[in-house]
Amino acid sequence: MATQVVMPKLSPTMEEGQLARWLKKEGDKVSVGEPIAEVDTDKATMEMQALGTGVLRKILIKEGETAPLGQLIAIIAEPDEDISALEAKAGSGQPAAENKEKIEQKAEAGGDGAEQELAQVERGGERTQETIKGAPLRGERGGAPDSQTQDRRPAQDSSEASGNGSSVSTGEARRLIVSPIAARMAADAGINLRTLTGSGPSGRIIKRDIEAAIQAGDQQPEKLARAAERPAYQQPEVEGASAYRDETMTQMRQTIARRLTTSLGPVPHFFLTTEIEMDQAAEMRRRINELDPQLKISINDIIIKVAAAALIQHPQVNASFQDKNVRYYESADIGVAVAIEDGLITPIVRAAERKTLSQIAGEVRELAERARSRKLRPEEYTGATFSISNLGMFGIDEFTAVINPPEAAILAVGAMTPKPVVRDGEIVVRQLMRVTMSCDHRVVDGATGARFLQTFKRILENPLYLIV
Amino acid sequence: MAVITMREALNQALREEMQRDETIFLMGEEVAEYQGAYKVTKGLLDEFGDKRVIDSPITELGFAGLGVGAAMVGLRPVIEFMTFNFSILATDQIINSAAKMRYMSGGQFKIPIVFRGPNGSAFQVSSQHSQALESWYAHFPGLKVVMPSTPADAKGLLKSAIRDDNPVIFMEQERMYGNKGEVPEDEDFIIPLGVADVKREGTDATIIARSLTVPLALKAAEELEKQGVSCEVIDPRTLRPLDIETIINSVKKTNRVVIAEESHPFCGIGAELSAEIAERAFDFLDAPVRRVSAADVPMPYAKNLEREAIPSVEKIVAAVKEVAYLD
Known about the structure:
The complex is a heterodimer.
Chain A: E1 3-6, E2 16-22, E3 29-30, E4 35-40, E5 45-49, E6 54-59, E7 66-68, E8 72-77, H1 84-92, H2 95-108, H3 113-131, H4 147-152, H5 154-163, H6 165-169, H7 180-189, H8 207-216, H9 251-261, E9 269-277, H10 279-291, H11 299-313, E10 319-322, E11 325-328, E12 334-336, E13 338-340, E14 343-345, E15 348-349, H12 357-372, H13 378-381, E16 386-390, E17 409-423, E18 426-440, H14 446-461
Parallel strand pairs in A: 12-16, 16-17
Antiparallel strand pairs in A: 1-8, 2-4, 2-7, 3-6, 4-5, 6-8, 9-18, 10-11, 12-15, 13-14, 17-18
Chain B: E1 2-5, H1 6-20, E2 24-28, H2 44-48, E3 53-55, H3 60-72, E4 76-80, H4 84-87, H5 91-104, E5 114-118, H6 134-138, E6 144-146, H7 151-163, E7 168-172, E8 180-183, E9 197-200, E10 205-209, H8 213-226, E11 231-235, E12 238-240, H9 244-254, E13 257-260, H10 269-281, E14 290-292, H11 303-309, H12 313-323
Parallel strand pairs in B: 2-3, 2-4, 4-5, 5-7, 6-7, 10-11, 10-13, 13-14
Antiparallel strand pairs in B: 1-8, 6-12, 9-11
C-alpha cells in the first residue's frame, strides 16, 4: 500500500512549509516514525516523520521549495509497486486543497503542532500493522488486545519477548512503544525516540526514560547547517548600478513581514519617550549579583520585572483591542524580543509580576537559548500581553518599536549611558536610559500611556518600590 | 469541631434539615419505631412524630412511588432503603418516574426526593446483599448520585441532597457507619454537589477513590510514601454531576492513575473515568489507567473469599506500583 507524504501542519499558524532538507533520498528504505525531512515552518524547523513503511520512491519537491499544507511532496511505496497514478495525481495539484481542509479541520478540533505529530505516529502505527502482514510482531505490539495481559505481567512478558527476540529486534519496522506523556516530552525536548531504550513493559518508553535522557543531555539538538553554505558575495563592477543577489525569503522572514504590516498600517501607533536614571537599579543589580554570582541578573531582567509591576497598576495598558471589546489581562505576560539568525522571536515570561528576579533571569536565559536553537513551543512565543525590545547592547540610544498585535504596547529600551545632569544645582554624572513606548491608540490614550510610563520610571529609579 | 460517627453525622443532617423545612418527611422500612436498621434515624420519630417519620411495609416499589408522588405535589421525601440491594425492586419508580418526570412534564414538576441507604459490601451478607450499584443510577440522566467517604462529607452532602430540587441517590456504606471524624456543628454547613475533594496531595500517581475505598486509598498512599511514591487521592464525592476537571488536572500533574472502587469492573464508574481520562488527558498518561475493583463474580459468602473479592490496601499499593513502573 503506497503512502502519500503530504505537507503537514506543524505550527498553529502554518499555511505552507519550506522543505529545508531531505534526510532520505529516492530509493532509501524508510519506516514509520522515522524522520524523512526537515521542514521550515513560519516559526521553527521541524522534523517530518514517515507515516508509512517502504521505500521512498519519489521526491516531488526540491530542498528550498515551498509547498502549501496538504500538497503531495513524496511517495512511499513497496519497491515494485506501481505509483504512476499517484504521480499523475500530484501533477494535477488538485488533492492539496482537500488534504489541507482535512488538516485544518483536525487542527481546529484541538490539535497543535505537537499533537499533530503525535497523531501522525499513532496513525503511522496502525498503518504499519496493516502493511506488514504476517511479520512476527509478538512482544512488540502496543495497541493489540493482548497488551493488557502483557502489561499486567511485565516479568513474564519480557522473558517471552526474549524468547523470539532476535527476529523482533532486527525487524526493519520496529513498532515504537511510547507512553503518550513520554512522546510529548520527547517532542518538546527534541529527543529522537529511536535512540532510546524503554524501561517499561515490552520496552515501552516511559516518562522516566525521557527524564533520564534529558538529564544525560546526550541528545545533541540537530544542527541547522543551512546558513553555513551561503554563496560568497559577488564583487560588484565598479561602474553601473550596485550588484545584488536574490535570496529566497525564509518562512520566518515572510511571517515577520506579514505580521508587521498588519501593525503599523492598521494599528494607530503613537510614541512616548522618557529618560530614566538607572543608578539605583544598576546598584541593586550589582549587589544582588554579588550575593550570588550564579544569579546573573541583567538590567533587562529588572526592566521586565518593573514593567510587570507597572502593568498590574495600570491594567489599561495590559490590554488588547478585540474588534468590539477591549480585553484586559490579569497577569503581565511579557514578550521579550530575542534576535536570532534570520529574524526575531519573542518568547514570553508568563505572569512576570509574580516571579522573582532570579526566576525571571533564569527563564529569560533558558527561553532565549531555546529560541536561538529554534526549540520553542508555539505556546511559549504566542499570546504575550506586552512586549519589551532592548537594543541597548547595540549602543542604540533610543528607538521606536512596532507593536506586536494584538498587544496594546511595546517598550523600546535604549542603552544605559553616563551623562552629566543637574541635581540640586550641581552638575553630576548619572546613568541614563531612554525608553520609548509605542501604544495602540485604540486602547491606550496619551495620558494613560504617560501615567504608566511615570509609574514605570518611578519604580525603576527607586527599585525598592518593588518590595513595598 | 465534634468528633462523631458517620451514622451520627447523617442523623444530624436529617434532623437539622427537618427542623429547617417542615415539608421534609422520612419513609422506609423500620425507620420510625425501630429507629432505622442502622440507627441513622435515631430519635427522629420522637422529635417529629409519625406524620413525618413513617414506617413502610416491605414494598420498595410501592413506597418509592409514594415518595415520587409526594415530591410532585410539593413535599420533600427522604426515602430510606434498608440497603441499595433492595432498591433494585424500586428501579421502575426511580428510573422511569423520578429521573424522567421533570423532563417529560416540560419542567412543570420538580422532584425533590432523596433515596438513601447503604451500598456495597457489608460483613458476610453474601451475593444478593453486597452489591455496589452506583453505576446503575449514574447511568441515567436525571439522577444525581452522591457517595460520601467521611462523616463531614456525609453531613454536608446529605443536606445539599435534601435541598436539591432533583432526585438524588445518596449511597452510604454499612462498613463505614461507625467511622469517626470531625464534623462542623454549623447548621449552614453544606457541601455542594459536583465538587470533588483532594483528600491527599501528591505528585507521582493519582488514586481516584470513593466511599469505602477512600480510607483504603489513604492508607495505601501512606504506605507508598514510605517507599518514595507520592500519591494524590481524589474523592469525586458526587458521581453525577462529576467534577471531571479536578480529576483531569491531577492526571496532568501525576501522569498515572489508579481507580479504586467497590463495584464490579465491567461497565463500572471506573470504566467511565478511564474513558474520560483517555478522551481528555491522553497525552499526559505515562501508563494505562489501572482499576482496582471488586472481583467480577457474585460476592462469596465465605469470609476469606469475601476478603479476596473486595479492594484492599495491598491491591491498591500493587496497582500504583504497576502504573509507576516499580518492581
